[in-house]
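Minutes, project check-in
Item: structure for the 128-residue chain
Input as provided by the requester:
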Amino acid sequence: MKKVVFVCVENSNRSQMAEAFARIHGAGRVEAFSAGSRPSGRVNPKAIEAMKELDYDLTTHTSKGLDAFNGKEVEVAVTMGCGDECPLVLAKQRVDWKIPDPRDMTPEQFREVRNLIESKVKELIQTL
């Protein structure tokens, strides 16, 4: 299985949803993780609600730091457009998705970001 880590500063919205979609759409092919350079310590309730609409329970996720990935090799490290470079993560491939931070968006705008993340995750899985 290919290891993929999705990284964003707080690990509370975008990277969490990306990890969830990789688990959903890459089951059996992808081992998905998410982390943040400065984790907030919680998953945003808006992200939990947005994923609940798709029958995914994001309350099982936790906001975590990059320490577990420092010096570890992964197939792909995906940054979510937040400026993190994650130099200590040993990735065969690095991808930066320019995805806006949905933290302060309306529920409708949040869903648009969620759907964008899902489509990008599906595209990524096809390339692995």
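Outcome recorded: The two ends are 10 Å apart (CA to CA).
No further action items on this chain.
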